[in-house]
Amino acid sequence: xxxxxxxxxxxxxxxxxxxILDIGCCFGQDLRFLAADxxxxxxxxxSDIVSEFWDLSFDLFRDKASFDACFIEADILDLExxxxxxxxxxxxxxxxxxxxxxxxERQLKMAKKLVYLGTRDAWVIGWQVGSGHGxxxxxxxxxxxxxxxxxxxxxxxxNDHTWQELWKQVGEETDTTWAxxxxxxxxxxxxxxxxxxxxxxxxxxGFEYICRRTS
Length: 215
Fold this sequence. Notes:
The protein is an alpha/beta fold. Helix content is about 30%, strand content about 25%.
């Protein structure tokens, strides 16, 4: 999380009282990075499709008495999930290692859900596996989890061009506009070993992004 080029901007905004929702939070480790940088945990929300990892996180980090983030068990692709209670309330929406789990159709659906949850000046931030080929890199999905993500479907790894195209379509279909910035890094810089990335195919890289809503 701290490796993101715009991390200081995110921390500064959150320290001023903005809200954040961590999609696919797992143990909530990224929110703990923010908490360590003096971001108020009372303004944090977290969501995942199961709560077990979140429950275990308090044993892992030993912070149950001090970490006040609100957890919501929900599937981001389910339009009727409990997340709808946050409609229009989230200033920053963080989705680390989530978009690349889906094909483009489901990525579009997820992005539009984030627009629904965000404020008029929302930021969407995160990092994930991308492709340095100048084209998306579809691969067979290996496991299930989120709605319809298993079986013979494909994952879509982005580069700057395909990510910009996705958010252009998001804007057109939600009557919003977005300023999109991306950055790509060798996966080795993220601590990946060669055996961790072989299944991703040639050209796989780390992909970081921030999408700022401008209207």
